[in-house]
Amino acid sequence: MRWPLVLATALLCACTTTPTPEPTPEPEPTSEPTDASTPRTEPPSRPITIAVAGDVHFEGALRSRLADPATALAPVTGTLAAADLAIVNLETSIGTGGRPDPTKRFTFQAPPAAFRALADAGIDVATMANNHALDFGREPLAGMFAAIDRAAPSLTVVGVGRDADEAFTPALTDVRGTVVATLGATQASLDPTADPTDQWAATATSPGTADAVDPRRLLQAVADADASADVVVVYVHWGVQGEGCPTTGQQDLAARLVDAGADVVVGSHAHRLQGDGRLGPGYVAYGLGNYAWYIQDGATATTGLLTLTVRAAARPEGRARVVHHAWEPARIGSDGLPRVVAGPAAARFEADLISLRRCAGLAP
What we know:
Blueprint: E1 3-4, E2 48-56, H1 77-82, E3 85-90, E4 93-94, E5 109-110, H2 113-120, E6 125-127, H3 141-151, E7 156-158, E8 160-161, H4 164-167, E9 171-175, E10 178-186, E11 208-209, H5 216-226, E12 231-237, H6 248-260, E13 264-268, E14 276-279, E15 282-285, E16 290-292, E17 302-311, E18 321-332, E19 338-340, H7 344-360
Parallel strand pairs: 2-3, 2-16, 3-6, 4-5, 6-7, 10-12, 12-13, 13-15
Antiparallel strand pairs: 1-9, 2-17, 8-11, 9-10, 14-15, 17-18, 18-19
Protein name: Poly-gamma-glutamate biosynthesis protein
Domain Capsule synthesis protein CapA: 49-295
Pfam family, one: PGA_cap
């Protein structure tokens, strides 16, 4: 289904590409990493599918499900596992110890079994660049990073790191010769309704999240990834909680990310859906809402899984492009898990998407 590559900054210059064949003799086909300075001369014969979902944690009724991580998200694994690459936002601190941040209204913490639960659900990449990753301070981080290392290669975690370099390092995933780079970053501290978390930013000497309040580091990371990967996905934690329309700040950053080389930009933090559609050569989904969440209340319980079909292009001139999108509409139940809806509920979901797309200023 997918083949994760080793995560390291150095590999940004050694992603998998299809080598240009010598006239004689014909080289044997290979799926091993090769020199990324050799551009792809022909697009891959088949597009790939990327499934993206919103916020996941293991609070409330969801916590007990971690007693059996292999089935914790079992009711929602089908479409996630069927995609070539599945990505979610893991909105909780991971580990044991530490103490709840006294400045925050809500603090979340889950055991390392959460990583196995995601992997067993068919999720390949989880971003932890959000305003809950350090809810219990930095004390649990050593154990969390050890658990992240153990989870690989089944699950790759982005958007958090032992330093800023690691936090901004993308996950590199080879799907039948198409290399996808996935980055995670957060702007949650710009939300006036949220608790301040800017002090959690990873630096050159301290662990933390990939902070994009100043987006220059993120934009450079996107440009670097675009230079070697065939498809670039950026998952951003941004916007204002409860709002269905993106802020001007979200719209500005989305445009800059696409200009920098992002082919797909998705996000969360509003705890409800926001518009999705085309933005120039890129595809943007501003808000994916909650996905596995402990509160079911109105718009926050409306959710869905977005599957994008992406075709890579010949490089260096060409860009990957989303050629098809499909939503699987769902509603979060009392157990915290989404259940697919049909009939009138699905029709309302589609109507809402059209309205949300208009206020996001995106093309169908």
